[in-house]
Amino acid sequence: MTDDIRVNSKHLDRALEELNLTPDPDTLKAADSLGRPGPRRAGAKKAAVQMTKMRVVDIGGEALSLEERPLTPVSPKRRGRPRKVTGQEQVKLERPMSLLPYNQVTQAVALLDNKLTPDRGLREWRNGKIVGDGTDIKPLGKGKKILLFVHGTFSKSDAYFDQIDRRGFKAGDEFLRWASRQYDQILTFDHATLSKSPFVNAHSLALAMGNTSADVDVISHSRGGVVTRWWVEALDRGRGKRRVVFAGSPLAGTGLASPANIRGALDMAYNIGNVLTKVSAAVPLMMFATGMFQIITSVLRVAGKTPLADAVVAIIPGLAGQSRVGNNYELLSLRSYANPHADRDYFFIVSDFESEKVGWKFWKVFRKGKLKMKLADIGTDILFDGKNDLVVDTLSMTDLTDQLIIPGSQILDYGTQSKVIHTNYFEQAKTLAFIRQSFERSNG
Q1: Region 320-331 average pLDDT
Q2: What is the mean pLDDT of the chain?
Q3: Whole-number pLDDT of residue 3
Q4: Which range has the top average pLDDT, 218-222, 310-314, 356-360?
Q5: pLDDT over 80 at 286, yes or no
Q6: Nearest CA to 20 among 290, 395, 343?
Q7: What is the pTM of this model?
Q8: Is residue 369 pLDDT above 60, yes or no?
Q9: Above pLDDT 70, what percent of the chain?
Q10: In the list 110, 157, 293, 430, which could disulfide-bond 195, CB 3.0-4.6 Å?
Q11: What DSSP line would sit under 332-381, residue for residue?
């Protein structure tokens, strides 16, 4: 056995607490008594909810995987039977977790969205903070300039400013001062990223922006780039200029959201959150991983003979809309629009992460040709065929259509390195300088 992977139990416990996934002592005691061998005592009460345990397993010193350990007996023929932990692996910790009744699984996805992104709609960054309740902010009109932020999966607009507007970050201070001078209004658009598809989010954005003829520059991160493309290219009713920076956006989908990789996506999110030291960045990843773990484990118990991947993706349209598979008709439809001004008004920030630092070796497990047998052992296909920033395939970040080639001058490519990952693009001074330079360019 190995013992070289540090498990950040504080981040995990914070995530479970935020999601209310840790049962109260009485419920846990009742459920635990059901799992003991031998006959039940006469008059013993059945637990109010079904229980399980989520355990964190060290896979041979390379990565961590989330596994289930049922408290009550499970037939060997049923999906969800716990995988045997081999001598090469080690259970790092276990946490009790309630299972969802079959009629609450879909609702749980929406509730997870509510925890990850509690505020919705247009809000405004003003005097150093985001204000508005999502309904009282209206975009300015003709002759005005708007800067709009659109966040990604399991995130919220506050995450941008957690990175940019942090103490001691000189480049962030300069960027915000520049933005305040350059734009008449700085808006954010918050939206549900799991229970709703990118197209539905874009429709909400279109309704919020209305027919404003202001010039709008958009900073989009991750899945927010797909939402932005739908708005700009298909749903926008305004006549102002539109320019967009896409940072780590899955424009041609991401392997992390494909049906066969749902389990691996949770493991990847957990591993990233485990090594991050900043709570505001780590806990949302842990919340996504553990919240989805509860949902998937519950689906396993009620799906019957339905393939797990199909059953899970069907109830999570926010992931299905960015899945990197050949039959993703939503993305195929988006790619057919082909904004004629994309080679002039679109800008891209891309990265490929590789690291030999202690704690980061897990990235190798999810790469093509790296430890393939271990991935197969946990029931996951290879997540990425090549370069990626730990969440999105690098090639997908600039892949708008099959024909369009983006000029190199419109791409900030961090290359292969060990610093820039999917969750910290806006902590980099180069990112902010590139955004500023891109938006200061004339439309011609």
Answers
A1: 80
A2: 84
A3: 52
A4: 218-222
A5: yes
A6: 290
A7: 0.89
A8: no
A9: 81
A10: 110
A11: HHHHTT--TTHHHHEEEEEEEE---STT-GGGGGGBTTSSHHHHHHTT--
Q: For 442, how many CA atoms within 13 A lie in the half-sphere containing its CB?
A: 1
How far from chain centre, in Å, is Cα 246? 15
Cβ neighbors of 81 (< 8 A, separation 6 or more) are: 74, 75
Fold category of 110-255+321-440 in CATH: Rossmann fold (3.40.50)
Q: Measure the CA–CA gap between 332 and 344, rounded to whole angstroms.
A: 22
The token duo for 403 is: 């024909």
Q: What is the pLDDT of residue 215?
A: 96
Helix (H) or strand (E) holding 202: helix 198-209
237: left (phi over 0), alpha (psi -120 to 50) or beta: alpha
Distance between terminal CA atoms of the chain?
A: 63
35-73: pLDDT as tens digits = 444 344 444 444 456 788 899 998 878 889 898 887 755
- Radius of gyration of the chain from its Cα atoms, rounded to whole angstroms: 23
Q: Are 233 and 334 in contact (CB under 8 A)?
A: yes
* Helix, strand, or coil (residue 198): helix
The answer to whether 286 touches 115, Cβ cutoff 8 Å, is no
Per-domain residue ranges of the chain: 110-255+321-440
Both tokens assigned to 239: 């006549």
- CA-based nearest residue to 175, from 405, 438, 433: 433
Q: Which residues pair with 185 in a beta bridge?
A: 146
State the residue for tokens 């520049």. 178
Q: Find the Cα–Cα–Cα–Cα dihedral 406, 409, 413, 414, rounded to 10°.
A: -170
Query: CB of 165 within 8 A of CB of 128?
Result: yes
Contact 148, 219 (CB under 8 A): yes
Q: pLDDT (tens digit, 9 = 90+) per residue, 88-109?
A: 678 999 999 888 887 788 889 9
